[in-house]
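Worked example 3 (structure in, sequence out).
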């Protein structure tokens, strides 16, 4: 039931007028551990957005969770996770930040808005 409500909210907010572009949907913290750097077939991910997406798939679908991972109300569905890369590219993250995600196992803070994601590396 909770997943259905979150999906309906996400779809509804995606269809709102451009004036609501900065509509805040939620935030979460996550540790991007080594498990998050590999896809479900064991292949190493070389794209920062793919690593962030895998973290959410690990959390919601595979129940592979790090102690610092938080629940989020948006990325429980595969469909919503598929939009992550586009949303990340519309948000604020630099090349240096992407390199830290690819080459390390940082703690991140993710702010989810209707059309974009702001992501910060905390360590």
């Amino acid at each position: 039931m909770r997943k259905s409500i979150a999906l309906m909210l996400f779809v509804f907010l995606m269809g709102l007028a451009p004036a609501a572009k900065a509509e805040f949907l939620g935030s979460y913290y996550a540790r991007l551990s080594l498990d998050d750097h590999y896809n479900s077939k064991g292949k190493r991910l070389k794209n920062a957005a793919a690593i962030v997406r895998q973290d959410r798939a690990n959390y919601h679908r595979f129940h592979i969770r790090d102690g610092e991972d938080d629940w989020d109300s948006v990325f429980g569905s595969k469909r919503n996770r598929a939009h992550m890369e586009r949303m990340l590219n519309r948000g604020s993250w630099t090349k240096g930040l992407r390199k830290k995600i690819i080459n390390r196992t940082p703690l991140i803070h993710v702010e989810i808005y209707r059309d974009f994601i702001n992501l910060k590396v905390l360590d």
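Notes: Residues 2-121 form one domain. The chain has one domain: 2-121.
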